[in-house]
Amino acid sequence: MALMITDECINCDVCEPECPNEAISPGDEIYVIDPNKCTECVGHYDEPQCQQVCPVDCIPLDPEHAESKDQLMEKYHRLTGL
Question: Which CATH number fits domain 16-80: 3.40.50.1000, 3.10.25.10, 3.30.70.20, 3.10.150.10?
Answer without folding.
Answer: 3.30.70.20
